Amino acid sequence: MITLEVQKQCFVGFKGERFRFFPSDEGYRNAKCSEQEGEVKIKSHAAVVAGKLYPDKKPRQQER
User: Which helix or strand (DSSP H or E) is residue 38 part of?
Assistant: First the structure.
């Protein structure tokens, strides 16, 4: 599952809109290409297994 925000009007939608998709591997690769072209910004992604979401975790920042 990916959550993305449209950066400029494109095939996905209008600037500022947010969407949640459950793409296949090919669809995820297409989303990454669209992000590199500046059309969309992927805000988050998570694995979906047996109907449960497993968000990717960011590494914890060290405290000073």
Answer: none
**Boundaries of domain holding 44:** 2-54
Q: Which residue bears the tokens 């968000």?
A: 55
CB count within 10 Å of CB 48 equals 10
What is the domain count for the chain?
A: 1
The contacts found for 56-63 with CB under 8 angstroms, 24 or more apart, are: none
The CA-based angle 31-34-43, given to 5 degrees, is 60
The rounded distance, in Å, linking the Cα atoms of 45 and 52 is: 13
pTM confidence score = 0.71
pLDDT digits (tens, 9 = 90+) for 14-42: 999 999 998 888 988 998 999 999 999 99
**Entry field: residues in the chain:** 64
